[in-house]
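fyi for ur records
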Amino acid sequence: MAYFDNKRIAQVISNLINNAIRHTPYGQKIVISSAKVDDGFIRFTIQDSGQGIAEQELESIFEQFIQGHSQAVNTGGTCLGLAICKEIIQAHKGRIWAENWSAKQKIQGAVFRFTLPISELNWKENNIT
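which gave:
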């Protein structure tokens, strides 16, 4: 069991899935998964089959009003979604990051991951609301 604000985390998941849909070509796949990791966290992963993110943009993509240069023009959105996701995850004492699918997999695309603590004690101590 994990302890978190289900409305805010649903907002994060929804935003990441919407981004994946927007950047995945028709007929390609999006993979959504979650897993408990050894250090007391649950990790969520949303993988798309789009162009991926330029390496130099992997960190800045979470800043307000930033849209990746490799993204198609007019893909929609306010360019605030990932910044809001980052704020929500950090408020929960988790971590969010982006990476690209490995070339070894012969699939291109972006991978967005975030972690949340699963301990009720950790959740209460950090006053997550």
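The first strand starts at residue 31 and ends at 37. thats all i got for now
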